[in-house]
Each structure stands twice: as C-alpha cells, then as structure tokens.
Amino acid sequence: MTRTVTVDPEHPDPDVIGEAAEVIRRGGLVAFPTETVYGLGANALDADAVRRIFEAKGRPSTDPLIVHIAHVGQLAQVASHVPPAARKLALAFWAGPLTLIVPKKPVIPDVVTAGLPSVAVRVPAHRVARALMEAAGVPVAAPSANRFSRPSPTRAAHVIDDLGGRIDLVLDGGPTPIGVESTIVDCTVTPPVLRRPGGITREQLLAHVPDLVVEQGLGEADAAQPAPGQLLRHYAPRARVTLYEGLPEAVVARVSRDARQLAGQGSRVGILAPEEEVMALAPAIAALASSGRVMARAFGPRSNPDQAARLLFDTMRALDAEGPDVMLAIGVGPEAIGAAIHDRLRRAAEGRVIRV
Ligand code: TXA
Ligand code: MG
C-alpha cells in the first residue's frame, strides 16, 4: 500500500519528514518533491533498497540513478575525487537543479551507477527534499518518480498514477516549481560535457566553465551514447508524438494541415503547443475541436519559457488522458530553459521531427 502525506513545501512538518526518513533508512521507497520534478528515493548505500527503485519504475538496470545529498560537504562521501570544474559548478549552483557526474567511491553500490565508475550527484534546493536528506542521514538515490519512459511527474497525482501501490510513501508538496529535470554535466572528462539540458541553462554554465562542451544534437539519436540510460525513448505519453520545428507561422500552417488530414483519416489528434500557437491554430481547427476529433492544449506562453517548462509534463499527461492517437507538439525557442523543453519534446517524439 502507498500512503500519501501532504507537506508544506516551504515549512515541512519535521514529524512527517522524520517518518519519511525512517522509511528510507529501513530500505523503503519514498517519493518526494524537488524543485525540478518528483523523485523516487531510497538509501543510496543499500543495494537492495535501490533495486526496489528499478522494480517499482520498471526501469532497465543499465540506466544509472542520481544520488541526492543534503549539502556540498557530503560530496566527499560519494566522490573519490572532485575535479576542479565540479567544485566550481557545485559552489555556483548548489543547492539547485544541477547534477554533476564525478568519479565514485566504492561505498556507492554498482546497482546505483549501473556499474559505471562514476556517480551522478546533486544537492536539491527544495526544502522538503533537503529536509528529507538531512533527516535520513544517508545519500538518497532518486530517479524521477514515474514509470519508465513516462513523462516525469511534476505533481503527487502523477506519481500516484504511475507508482501507486508500488512504493511506500508519497510526500505531496504541491506542484514542482521548475518542471523539467536537472541539467547534467559530466565532470569526469576535461573539459566537462553537458549531457542533459535542464533547470540550469547552458548560458549560466558557460559563465563559470567557458570551455564546457555542448554535445552535438543532444537528445537526437540513440547511437554513440556516452553513458547508458540516455535513451531516446523518454518522457513519452501513450499517444505517438511528432515534433514540429521551424518559424512559428510556418509551423502553425503545417500543424493545422496535418491535424485536419489525420482527423480526416479517422485519428484522434492532440496538439501540445505554447499558448500563442494554440491561439493561432484555433480558427483552423474549430470545427474538428467541437466534434472532439482534435484537442489542443497549451503548456504556457512562448513569451514565458519558465512557465512553459513548469507546465510541460503536466499538460502532456493531461492531453494524453484525453486519449489522442497522435500528438503534434510544438516547442518554444532554444534560449534558456527552452533548450530543456525542446530536448524533452524530441525524446517524447522518439526522433519523429518535422522541420518546416
Ligand atoms: O531533476 C532531476 O535530475 C530529477 C530529480 C528527482 O532530482 N532526477 C532525474 O533522474 O531526472 P533520472 O533518473 O530520471 O535521470 C537521471 C539521468 C539518467 O538519464 C542517467 O542516465 C543519468 O542521469 N546518469 C546517472 N548517473 C550517471 C552516470 N554515472 N553517468 C552518466 N549519466 C548518468
Ligand atoms: Mg527520469
């Protein structure tokens, strides 16, 4: 059975946190809010507990987990060596949505890192997450708290939909403020490499590590993966997603045409797009929308990418729940957190990208 307990995101009740910490120490699984998405936590030093994470999520054991610590001082407990770039980035961005890959200490079981000699570490900024790490007194291994390959959870209800009955406890601290996962930087190589765009932007990183390498075509292909687990299929709803890229007017025209054509062939069509595009599409799809064959949902304004990021996964799940066969997705610009939005949409689309 899974229990859900509500916690104040700013001032979590110490008794509730104490109870959750006890579940972690005893080898159980606790879902908790972070500033990015909900995580599914277990004691990172307990291989059996960590195995339960993989079982609950249906996650392949080749996909390594992020270890969450309460403060930068704990880094030496999990890292055998802290490269200079990792030190710089940790000082600049922790606590916050940045994960650093560093060489691991033997105390971290192989199941956490999928056998890799490195470990991904972060100090979350969310008060519930930090209070939990502190009370548990152990590093906490936590992937996003969704079933494998489903969109990441930004609300407790998403966690319960995916993992209800499979985990011990859910701390419901309300919607997560950033909405996309942490940025991942590999600091085991020189210069360091950006492996996943996320809550800390590339521009922010470059200000501290000017020689940072940004991988070509992040999220583009499955081939030549530098690490296991960077699978393309990720963040995917049930509907088959196609991502449209290009100038907004051209994209709107093409999506409108494709939506009408697909609906004409009998498909139920979902459109996932920024507010501006949904508004521009409205006249062209009005008749199909009122007959229920096309449904459009906006995940926030293009003019406010932070809000768009916050609403992305929630909107994707809500649209998916309406039962479309196909989902036509439009992202926002590549600036700032827009890069993370774009990366997640590309992964959801599993490479089905139409450039217009
Ligand atoms: O914001 C986040 O990072 C959230 C919250 C809960 O902290 N966590 C999260 O975890 O997104 P997850 O498991 O969904 O994504 C972790 C990613 C995986 O793609 C994995 O391949 C990569 O981190 N990773 C973990 N350890 C690694 C390592 N040693 N080397 C390379 N990649 C690693
Ligand atoms: Mg995940």
Overview of this structure, please?
The protein has two domains: 3-214, DHBP synthase (Alpha-Beta Complex), CATH 3.90.870; 240-355, Threonylcarbamoyl-AMP synthase, C-terminal domain (Rossmann fold), CATH 3.40.50. It has twelve helices and 16 strands. It has helices at residues 14-25, 47-57, 75-78, 84-93, 110-113, 127-136, 156-163, 202-208, 248-264, 275-290, 305-321, 338-348, and strands at 3-6, 30-33, 38-43, 66-68, 98-103, 118-122, 140-141, 169-172, 183-186, 193-196, 213-214, 240-245, 269-273, 294-298, 326-330, 353-355. An eleven-stranded mixed β-sheet has the order 1-8-2-3-7-4-6-5-9-10-11, sandwiched between helices. A hairpin with a 4-residue loop joins β2 and β3 (38-43). Mean pLDDT is 94; it is low at 219-231. Threonylcarbamoyladenylate binds next to β5 and β6.
